[in-house]
Amino acid sequence: MKKHILVIAGDGIGQEVTAVGKQVLERIAGKFGHEFTYDEALIGHAAIEATGNPLPEATITKSKASDAILFGAVGHPKYDNDPSAKLRPEQGLLGIRKALGLYANLRPIKLFDELLGASSIKPEFLQGADILFFRELTGDVYFGEKGRNEDRSTAYDTMIYSRYEVERIAVKAFEAAMTRRKKLCSVDKANVLESSRLWREVVQKVAKRYPEVDVEHQFIDAAAMLLIKDPRRFDVVLTGNLFGDILTDEASQIAGSMGMLASASVGDTIGLYEPIHGSAHDIAGKGVANPLASVLSVALMLDISFGLKSEAETVLTAVDTVLKAGYRTRDIADGNTSSEKILGTEAMGARLIA
Amino acid sequence: MKKHILVIAGDGIGQEVTAVGKQVLERIAGKFGHEFTYDEALIGHAAIEATGNPLPEATITKSKASDAILFGAVGHPKYDNDPSAKLRPEQGLLGIRKALGLYANLRPIKLFDELLGASSIKPEFLQGADILFFRELTGDVYFGEKGRNEDRSTAYDTMIYSRYEVERIAVKAFEAAMTRRKKLCSVDKANVLESSRLWREVVQKVAKRYPEVDVEHQFIDAAAMLLIKDPRRFDVVLTGNLFGDILTDEASQIAGSMGMLASASVGDTIGLYEPIHGSAHDIAGKGVANPLASVLSVALMLDISFGLKSEAETVLTAVDTVLKAGYRTRDIADGNTSSEKILGTEAMGARLIA
Ligand SMILES: CC(C)[C@H](C(=O)O)[C@@H](O)C(=O)O
Ligand SMILES: CC(C)[C@H](C(=O)O)[C@@H](O)C(=O)O
């Protein structure tokens, strides 16, 4: 199979972790006789520095010319402490999601057995947890009108959803539920928000087409609590952009670490694959970042964009084998030094390839 | 001391738990020689059924005539499954917060040592955790303009904050931090939202007046993760209405159960004291609800509204003693049947009084 992959490494540890992701792609290509070609493009802080634009036109053009995108991370602390900055790295990420119509963000949360000890949650609550989040990615308060009043003393953002936007992601989530344990939990705040009431109306309607799926609706506050109290009650979780952002980061504790979580952003055409962790400037360039989320993103790419199931399985098995052999990056170590071997980013990459 | 207390029991288990809260108030009055008088008022589903209005005028009048309010809960599943309902129980709660100017919601999260085992989080991550949330309560997407477009195919809510609103709650949170461990974490989503950027600007400005307080800013997604990963890193947490709703429910897992968490809603005059749990219709009327959050709300009332510190301490000690003696309601039992004695709502109340 011939595929053209665009690597958008972005900021901070994005560089280091996508480098490992790419090595894994190369190894898979060699092993299975595929031909993967690559290109690179800028985004985020790196793009602002180089071009004055967090999402250069060339990045969009190259994205559209690719079969899939391997994405790193965006962000830089300098903007976070400056609420008045006009240009922000995150505009690159939000812009590319919108430009490519990537409305569905899939975030599988599954614990590797070897990491049971790495979480702050008790193992008996985690064992067997297996959640697939569907986070809507191109609507909500992220993309509604925002601004200030004239004297800048009031600021607003608009949380907004259309039936069409809710329906298309709901259908994807129900379809996925049908291939899994046939349970779906839709999360909103319908007791307060009008956009959530529309969300719930549409999900109830779509649910009628999937009578086999057992549907529940939870308010976001209750869902944030239940996710920690009883993670195993969830199968597919369907939610909006903002609530999805919050719940999936929280859910990283179920998988032991943010460093283990991959995501696929898909729409009608190309898919973008990225770790859910951020640019982590505090550890960037030190060679200690966990590359496994990027590697697991590669597995999602092979599976979802290219339909290469056994190639994806091979990557998952490699990750499992490395963990079973006791190799860990710092963030997923549980301090049991007798059995654990702590590796840096590159060494972990080399182990995976081997 | 003479005080007039309005009991607004509301819906579901609100009735049962405020009954215990009131008994505790009576016991304190007897023991310390105070004179507490009481009145009752309707809200929520109960008020809709009786008067057709989730917040009858009489409830506001009685509230304004009281020295403090003991609140139960609002909500009813029948509205949750009907996104098009015009009248909703929650309108009563939101309406009274607004009508009385209760802009600051204080939610202390502190684990009773005896409940270390009741949480899904490992005890070594919980021991010593002590967080005080300041949730803004009369602004944000709860109260901004909301609606539908003409053909009802799009729905929106406006997330909105003014400098004035942010400043007054920030000042309260910094003042509290000064009496505690002098750490404050402000939570927003300033990398995406304009209202969060205003929030961060104002908090940064107020922070200058409190140079001794060690301030950090976290994005809501990271905060939702860190709260579980490392609850002890937090002292005072300051956040908006929506993010506060989510984080405090999530944080209930740090305290072992929602049934243990009380909150104080204060503004410039009267205070309203309520459990953070909801109306829980699934267990309402069964006599199994945990009344301790209502009892701890009473302790907050005695302390904050009446300045009765030793009376508040007495209530806390009673809760501690009952837990130490092994008494539990179902929700906080950890299954260790040899040492635990499971009680219903009333029996737990009777134990506390004793
Ligand atoms: C960087 C930020 C804009 C982004 C988001 O909020 O969507 C990130 O947190 C994510 O989850 O991908
Ligand atoms: C009942 C609901 C409107 C309310 C809220 O969201 O504020 C509740 O969840 C709370 O936290 O007090």
Structure description:
The structure is a homodimer of 354-residue chains. Chain A has 13 helices and 14 strands. With 354 residues, the first copy, chain A, is an alpha/beta fold. Chain A has two domains: 1-119 and 256-354, 3-Layer(aba) Sandwich (Isopropylmalate Dehydrogenase); 127-254, Isopropylmalate Dehydrogenase (3-Layer(aba) Sandwich), CATH 3.40.718. Chain A starts with a strand and ends with a helix. Helix content of chain A is 41%, strand content 22%. Chain A has helices at 14-32, 44-51, 57-64, 77-80, 89-99, 123-126, 163-178, 194-208, 220-229, 241-251, 292-305, 309-324, 345-353; strands at residues 2-10, 35-40, 68-73, 104-110, 130-136, 146-148, 154-162, 183-188, 214-219, 236-239, 262-266, 271-275, 327-328, 341-342. Chain A has a ten-stranded mixed beta sheet with strand order 2-1-3-12-11-4-5-10-8-9, sandwiched between helices. The first copy, chain A, has a two-stranded antiparallel sheet with strand order 6-7. In chain A, strands 13-14 form a two-stranded parallel ribbon. Bound molecules: 3-isopropylmalic acid (2 copies). One 3-isopropylmalic acid (IPM) sits between chains B (74-75, 90, 93-94, 245, 276) and A (191-192, 221). Chains A, B: This is 3-isopropylmalate dehydrogenase. Chains A, B: Its cofactor is Mn(2+); Mg(2+). Chains A, B: One of its GO terms (cellular component) is cytosol.
